[in-house]
């Protein structure tokens, strides 16, 4: 399968690979996917509680080039966004940016799920109600 | 200078040996006759070339030249052998025994036999990829007409106990067939000593051209016959009609001759290179060889790298032409059925690479491959949340994954 230049770039030079301290109250962690399915993404955000802005984002992904690129791109987009702006990120924006072929759309869906899951973790940790499932992808 | 990418997918196909091409050239140009033309020199020259090739092939596998039936390749040979025996021996019975790790050319042919009303037993294999002789013995019935078990596996290189299998088949009055595609030309295969009644093989896995193969069909003790699957001019003693592919057959003959003369030296050199590759890659933590290391073709290794995803790994080893245990070319990510049959979990099957070395593989290429794979695996693990969890001592099987 031919990968787009952007996927190859993110795969070769992934942005923001790493781990944030999940014991911190202002860090939200999302872990989505399953090893048997061939994709597991962990995406973390660190939030400035006074401005509700994401100051740092890190990921680790077990998956194909498109899954790695989707999560790498997601961390790039998350930094500097408010939590509400981050919630509005749609998987199709990732598909467009990375020119993912139809068989790889699930990678972008997983990245969106990871973002929502990290935000949810942050909300619950800080006494806010959990988000309702806004979309059902599965 | 090292040319990239490096070809290490020689179980898929091998490059044509220049000496084979040289032998074929006259038959692609001035010696163009039809080997079946009996009444002029053009036909005689072609027939002579085909007969010489039969002798070259026969010397490699220790059979009579007349026992070679030329086909378009191993897939056709597997089809002709299995369907041909099933039809020819229908009076005797309708049961065939094979194994779950066979090539699709055998498995799908057996599926077809089942549709025709035949009964097929698919023997399981152990974690080394070997069938159990006790299982085979137990599966034999008076209706069993054929046992067909491959010689060396295409994905793992595992070599089955051919002689013992043949003996069990014969004891119960069944014929023994083997798919010798990966073994012929690589290791000594002797149809007499091994007790083989039918054997499929092909030129392009042993430095010959694509599109030509053969089915060995025993002529005495016992005399084996197969019903033709291709009707026409009655070529190849009536078992396979169709104008002979003279240049291809000449190429197969030459490839067999070279294999016979150079096998010992090739094996010594390739197994040393394969062992070096394997030894170095196994220095990576959580890497495992798939299949038997004791009973194995000399030029193959299949290794899984845990906590690395297969498709990502293939992208990371872009300087190598290798195969992965994932069929990730298609829309669905299907792990290899051969590795699954060995008992590997989906994730280990996905994260496997198959390396197949050839006569033309150099030590420089292997050294490059070692570093390239190590770098890719290390980089992907640094990026892998599963690797991090493994390193923290978390039992991944206890996690409730959000299946999607």
Automatic annotation (TrEMBL), chain A:
One of its GO terms (biological process) is iron-sulfur cluster assembly. Residues 2-126 form the NIF system FeS cluster assembly NifU N-terminal domain. Pfam families: NifU_N. GO terms for molecular function: iron ion binding; iron-sulfur cluster binding. Keywords: Iron, Iron-sulfur, Metal-binding. Signal peptide: none annotated. CDD domains: IscU_like. The keyword Iron-sulfur applies. NCBIfam families: iscU (TIGR01999). A scaffold on which IscS assembles Fe-S clusters. It is likely that Fe-S cluster coordination is flexible as the role of this complex is to build and then hand off Fe-S clusters. This is Iron-sulfur cluster assembly scaffold protein IscU. It comes from Hymenobacter metallicola.
UniProtKB/TrEMBL annotation, chain B:
It is found in: Cytoplasm. InterPro entries: Aminotrans_V_dom, Aminotrans_V_PyrdxlP_BS, Cys_deSase_IscS, Cysteine_dSase, PyrdxlP-dep_Trfase, PyrdxlP-dep_Trfase_major, PyrdxlP-dep_Trfase_small. GO terms for biological process: [2Fe-2S] cluster assembly. SUPFAM superfamilies: PLP-dependent transferases. Its main location: cytoplasm. The modification N6-(pyridoxal phosphate)lysine is found at residue 205. One of its GO terms (cellular component) is L-cysteine desulfurase complex. The active site is at residue 328. Pyridoxal 5'-phosphate binds at residues 74-75, 154, 182, 202-204, 243. Residues 267-294 form a coiled coil. Pathway: Cofactor biosynthesis; iron-sulfur cluster biosynthesis. One of its GO terms (molecular function) is 2 iron, 2 sulfur cluster binding. Its cofactor is pyridoxal 5'-phosphate. It catalyses: (sulfur carrier)-H + L-cysteine = (sulfur carrier)-SH + L-alanine. Its EC number is 2.8.1.7. [2Fe-2S] cluster binds at residue 328. Keywords: 2Fe-2S, Coiled coil, Cytoplasm, Iron, Iron-sulfur, Metal-binding, Pyridoxal phosphate, Transferase. PROSITE patterns: AA_TRANSFER_CLASS_5 (PS00595). It comes from the Bacteria. Residues 6-368 form the Aminotransferase class V domain. Master enzyme that delivers sulfur to a number of partners involved in Fe-S cluster assembly, tRNA modification or cofactor biosynthesis. Catalyzes the removal of elemental sulfur atoms from cysteine to produce alanine. Functions as a sulfur delivery protein for Fe-S cluster synthesis onto IscU, an Fe-S scaffold assembly protein, as well as other S acceptor proteins. Belongs to the class-V pyridoxal-phosphate-dependent aminotransferase family. NifS/IscS subfamily. Homodimer. Forms a heterotetramer with IscU, interacts with other sulfur acceptors. This is Cysteine desulfurase IscS. It comes from Hymenobacter metallicola. The lineage of its organism: Bacteria, Pseudomonadati, Bacteroidota, Cytophagia, Cytophagales.
């Amino acid at each position: 399968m031919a990968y787009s230049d952007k996927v190859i770039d993110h795969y070769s030079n992934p942005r923001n690979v790493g781990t944030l301290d999940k014991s911190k109250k202002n860090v939200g962690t999302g872990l989505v996917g399953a090893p048997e399915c061939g994709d597991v993404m962990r995406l973390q955000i660190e939030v400035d509680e006074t401005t509700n802005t994401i100051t740092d984002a890190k990921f680790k992904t077990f998956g194909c080039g498109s899954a790695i690129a989707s999560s790498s791109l997601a961390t790039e987009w998350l930094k500097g966004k408010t939590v509400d702006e981050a919630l509005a990120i749609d998987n199709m924006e990732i598909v467009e940016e990375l020119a993912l072929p139809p068989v790889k759309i699930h990678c972008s869906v997983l990245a969106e799920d990871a973002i929502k899951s990290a935000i949810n973790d942050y909300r619950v940790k800080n006494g806010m109600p959990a988000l309702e499932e806004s979309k059902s992808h599965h | 200078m090292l040319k990239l990418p490096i070809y290490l997918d020689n179980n898929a196909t091998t490059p044509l040996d220049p000496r084979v091409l040289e032998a074929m050239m006259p038959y692609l140009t001035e010696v163009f006759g039809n080997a079946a033309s009996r009444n002029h020199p053009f036909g005689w020259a072609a027939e002579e070339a085909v007969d010489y090739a039969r002798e070259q092939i026969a010397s490699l596998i220790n059979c009579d030249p007349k026992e070679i039936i030329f086909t378009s390749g191993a897939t056709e040979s597997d089809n002709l052998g299995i369907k041909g025996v099933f039809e020819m021996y229908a009076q005797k019975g309708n049961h065939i025994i094979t194994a779950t790790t066979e090539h699709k050319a055998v498995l799908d042919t057996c599926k077809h036999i089942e549709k025709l009303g035949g009964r097929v037993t698919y023997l399981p294999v152990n974690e080394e990829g070997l069938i159990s002789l006790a299982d085979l013995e137990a599966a034999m019935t008076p209706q069993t007409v054929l046992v067909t078990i491959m010689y060396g596996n295409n994905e793992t290189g595992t070599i089955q106990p051919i002689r013992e299998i043949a003996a069990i088949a014969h004891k119960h009055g069944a014929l023994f067939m083997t798919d010798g595609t990966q073994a012929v030309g690589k290791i000594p295969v002797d149809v007499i000593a091994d007790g083989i009644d039918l054997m499929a093989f092909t030129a392009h896995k042993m430095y010959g051209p694509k599109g030509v193969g053969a089915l060995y069909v025993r002529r005495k003790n016992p005399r084996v016959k197969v019903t033709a699957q291709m009707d026409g001019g009655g070529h190849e003693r009536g078992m396979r009609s169709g104008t002979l592919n003279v240049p291809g057959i000449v190429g197969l003959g030459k490839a067999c001759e070279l294999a016979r003369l150079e096998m010992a030296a090739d094996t010594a050199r390739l197994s040393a290179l394969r062992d070096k590759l394997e030894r170095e890659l196994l220095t990576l933590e959580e890497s495992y060889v798939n299949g038997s290391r004791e009973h194995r073709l000399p030029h193959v290794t299949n290794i899984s790298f845990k906590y690395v995803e297969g498709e990502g790994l293939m992208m990371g080893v872009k300087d190598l032409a290798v195969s992965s245990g994932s069929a990730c070319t298609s829309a669905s990510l299907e792990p290899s059925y051969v590795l699954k049959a060995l008992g590997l979990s989906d994730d280990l099957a996905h994260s496997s690479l198959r390396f197949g070395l050839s006569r033309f593989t150099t030590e420089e290429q292997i050294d490059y491959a070692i570093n390239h794979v190590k770098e890719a695996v290390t980089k992907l693990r640094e990026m892998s949340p599963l690797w991090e969890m493994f390193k923290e001592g978390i039992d991944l099987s206890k996690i409730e994954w959000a299946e999607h």
